[in-house]
Structures are given as structure tokens and as C-alpha cells.
Amino acid sequence: MLAGEYSINAKLLYGLLLNRTTLSQKSGWVSEDGNVYVIYTIKQMADDLDRSERTVKTALRELENAGLITRVRQGWNQANRIFLQIPDRVQISSRPEGNTCPMDVQDSSPCMGQKLPTSNTDAEYKEHSKTDR
Q: What digits encode the pLDDT tens for the residues 35-46?
């Protein structure tokens, strides 16, 4: 996704922001000039990444200095609007259509919709509990 000398925290945060940007786009969070933005508190980012707020602030600064995000202040004690910049060399792919397993090596291997064998554990448990009494 991101090539370059970015910290792992910055890469993780960028991925998280990218995911949130797609949600914001679906929700219609668009600025006056037509750019999609994310409203995401530092505390929420820290919780979602399981990192400290200080680490998140450092990663945000790193992304901002690299020109990958732009933060716009909203006012006292309000979360900033974060505009994600997508570099020209980054390709965003959409989810594959159909029932495919992303972990499979094959191009399209159906994994969803397959019926698994039924488990007899409930029946075995009930039968076992009747005999113990």
C-alpha cells in the first residue's frame, strides 16, 4: 500500500484511515469543495490500533509531514477533519465479486455458501446429560 520509509504505526493508521474514508464516503461526509473527510478522535484511533495516544499523534504527524493526510481543526475540544491523500502510485482495489476466499492461492475458490457437516455436539451433550442424571 505505502512504499517508503514509514513507521509501522503510520502504515497501520493510514490503512485504518483509508477504511474509514470509504465509510465516510458512503455516509456522505463531504466538504464544501467535494472532498471526503473523516472525523476520528485520537482516543478512538489509539483504542482501535491498541496504541497510546502519543504514538497515534506521532504517526499522524508522520503522515501529515509526508503529505498523506491533511488535518483541519474544527474548534475547541472537537475532533479534526482528516482528509486522506492517496498518492498516484497507490492503487485501491475493490472487493472481489462472488464467493471467494481471500486466503486461497487460486483466483476464485468458493468458500462462502458451502454447507458444513452438521455437528452432533448438541444432541450428544443432551444425551450425555440425561445419562449422567
A: 999 999 999 999
Nearest CA to 38 out of 78, 67, 79 is that of 79
Alpha-carbon separation of residue 4 from 36, 83, 130 (angstroms):
25, 20, 64
**C-beta neighbour count of 73 within 10 angstroms:** 9
User: Angle, to 10 degrees, between the axis of helix 53-65 and the axis of helix 8-27?
Assistant: 80
HSE-CB at 16 with a 13 A cutoff on CA atoms is: 23
Q: Nearest 5°: phi and psi at 39?
A: -110, 115
Q: Where are the beta strands (DSSP E) in 15-132?
A: 38-39, 69-72, 81-84
pTM over 0.90: no
Quote the cell numbers at residue 32.
464544501
